[in-house]
Amino acid sequence: MRNTVLHFPDGFRWGAATAAHQIEGNNYANDWWPREWAEGTSIVEPSGDACDSFHRYREDMQCLVDAGLDTYRFSIEWSRIEPEEGFVSKAGVAHYRRMVETALELGITPMVTLMHFTVPRWFADEGMWRSPKAADRFARFTELALPILGDDVEWVCTINEPNIAAMIAGGEDPANLVAYGLPAPDLHVADTLLESHHRAREILAGVGGIRSGWTVATQDFQPEPGCEDVAHEYGHQRDDWYLEAARGDDWVGVQAYTRTIIGPDGPRPVPEGVETTLTGWEYYPLALEHGVRSAWEKTQGVPVFVTENGIATADDARRVDYTEAALAGLHAAIADGVRVEGYLHWSLLDNYEWASGYRPTFGLIEVDKDTFERRPKPSLGWLGSVARANGLTPRA
Ligand code: BGC
Predict the structure, then answer these.
(1) Is the C-beta atom of 346 inside 6 A of ligand 1?
(2) Does any domain span residue 319?
(3) DSSP state of 219
(4) Nearest CA among 65, 249, 90, 83 for reference residue 156
């Protein structure tokens, strides 16, 4: 008997995502770098050279396109555009414009993220998202990014995971961002991030042809029986509020990895014996379908783009299992009428996983830490074959 093929809509985009600080290397001018080197830091290791993608971005994109993928999400490192307050690096702007041009030359659709967690040190010193100047600063940076976007970048993400950014700004040590239980967000920071998003969207709308949105970490909070109210209260300020705030946007990004069970006292740890990944998160591929359905419902019908989904594992075959199950769930949501524009896997490369360092490997491509040689894993070829067919043939 032949297996059924799950077809994706015509024009569906397939690709992978990265973020500047996690792959470029040597981002000394941002707020993360000094924290990585601070005495007594709980960050397990510094980012250092990362994947040296600042120089090797063409090779990264070549691997992506050779596999059969067509879309690459990457971010602009704000601290390379404005390393000091009052100084704009023309070379920095030119670098990212070259990245856009390289993508287009290779036939790749670029999706550009303006801010993926890291900010210039001077902005952090000024109070970061708590500073009264924050939204103005971000608006100015958005203006500075316009020559990078030119008139040929369609997809722009203003702010990556504002919900996680607001939780980190809650004052909690990022090393405590574990598999369950996220710190309470700073609600003032959440408002400032939303204002910054709106300011950026207005500026981008003036260009024409740009579709902008923000990307939310959907966390699939699942109540135990009788805990629906606790789950609502816990989840709304960490997740749903950001989806509701995206109503009226051109699209909304869903970034899904795992679920969190909510008991009477809040989040539960992953039970003994349940499979977990290298980040300690529960292996739970259905998180994608749930995240996408929730985004569609909470935004009241804003088109969804899966801007991150993946698994930290040293077992690449397990990455394929996870992604296959996640894509089957995504397909079910699409079949029920949810409009989804594309799927971008996190991540293209084994990169710097923030406070956890290099151990949790999310990549479709392994990177040699000494030579920076890129070694595509079987999962890259597998995802590329799904992309070429624009369809998934589940193995079981
Ligand atoms: C972030 C990435 C991160 C990934 C895996 C998302 O929260 O946008 O920067 O590496 O999840 O933890």
Answers:
(1) yes
(2) yes
(3) -
(4) 249
Say how far apart CA 240 and CA 217 lie, in whole Å: 10
pTM: 0.97
Q: How many helices (H) and strands (E) does the chain have?
A: 14, 15
**Tokens at residue 306, please?**
């899966």
Ligand 1 lined by 164 (C-beta under 6 Å): yes
Ligand 1 neighbourhood includes 255 CB (under 6 angstroms): yes
Residue 246 in any domain: the answer is yes
Task: Confirm whether 346 is domain-assigned.
Answer: yes
Is 1 part of a structural domain of the chain?
Answer: no
Query: What residue numbers bound the domain in which 62 lies?
Result: 6-392
Ligand 1 pocket test: which of 116, 277, 308 has the largest number of ligand atoms within 8 Å of its C-beta? 308
In whole angstroms, give the CA distance from residue 54 to residue 40. Answer: 29
How does pLDDT run along the chain (396 residues), one tens digit per residue? 457 999 999 999 999 999 999 999 999 999 999 999 999 998 999 999 999 999 999 999 999 999 999 999 999 999 999 999 999 999 999 999 999 999 999 999 999 999 999 999 999 999 999 999 999 999 999 999 999 999 999 999 999 999 999 988 766 555 555 445 677 888 999 999 999 999 999 999 999 899 999 999 999 999 999 999 999 999 999 999 999 999 999 999 999 999 999 999 989 999 999 999 999 999 999 999 999 999 999 999 999 999 999 999 999 999 999 999 999 999 999 999 999 999 999 999 999 999 999 999 999 999 999 999 999 999 999 999 999 999 999 887
Element (H, E) at 167: helix 162-168
Number of compact structural domains in the chain: 1
124: domain CATH number is 3.20.20.80
- Go through 132-165 and write b for each residue having 16 or more CB atoms within 10 A of its CB, e for each that does not: eebbebbbebbebbbebbeeebebbbbbbbbbbb
